[in-house]
Amino acid sequence: MKRIAWLLLLAPSLVAAQNSPDTGSAARRQRREAWVSQAVGLTADQAAKLEATRARFAPQRRAIMERVRAIRAGLRGQLQPGIAANADSVRKLLDARDQNRGAFVQLQRDEEKEIAGYLSPVQRARLDLLRERFVGMGSRAGRRHGGRRGQRGGDGRGWGMRGDWRHQSE
Questions:
Q1: Predicted confidence (pLDDT) per residue in 96-112, tens digit
Q2: 3-class SS at 95?
Q3: Cβ atoms 50, 13 nearer than 8 A
């Protein structure tokens, strides 16, 4: 299943980028948007619709990510070494985590359904491959820069969003 980081592919529209105070960032977003449009073979109309879809789903995606952070913080607080965890609190956090995963999967389904209305199956497949490529790049960048992304647990799966969400849909 695609990961939240795929948003990196779908940069804000040119108008939003032009209004950005950080011109270097705006220029990168413009280049990325043009590259994605070319790689996927989007028309101007399709690119505009894809940006509109991204913008429409972004607030829901941000809310889910905020809940992920809060749940993880709660679990870290409960699982401190040398301190007995409250089993009921941990269970509630795990239940909330599972509900949040379900909400994310449903959000992705809704978004994909909308995208299917204006992109061909070939374009959707290309977009999916690009998303996966950028998700992998993001986890490698996190390791290079000392971030937590890409760290491995004892089972070899990632502990970040990639590991959490990937196994939900497969």
A1: 999 999 999 999 999 99
A2: helix
A3: no
Q: What is the pLDDT of residues 18-67, one digit of tens each?
A: 444 556 877 887 888 888 899 999 999 999 999 899 889 999 999 999 99
Question: How far is the C-alpha of 6 from the C-alpha of 11, rounded, in Å?
Answer: 10
* Cα three-residue angle 40-44-46, rounded to 5 degrees: 60
Distance from C-alpha of 128 to C-alpha of 123, rounded to nearest angstrom? 9
Query: Which residue has tokens 């820069």?
Result: 145
Name residues whose C-beta falls within 8 Å of residue 48's C-beta, 6 or more positions apart in sequence: 13
Helix (H) or strand (E) segment spanning residue 117 = none
Q: Place 167 in a pLDDT band, splitting at 50, 70 and 90.
A: very low
CA–CA dist 131, 5 (Å, integer): 8
If DSSP codes are grouped into helix, strand and coil, which group holds residue 84? coil
Q: How many CB atoms lie within 10 A of CB 39?
A: 15
Assess contact for 2 and 135: CB atoms under 8 A: yes
Amino acid at 163: G
Most distant CA pair in the chain: distance in Å?
58
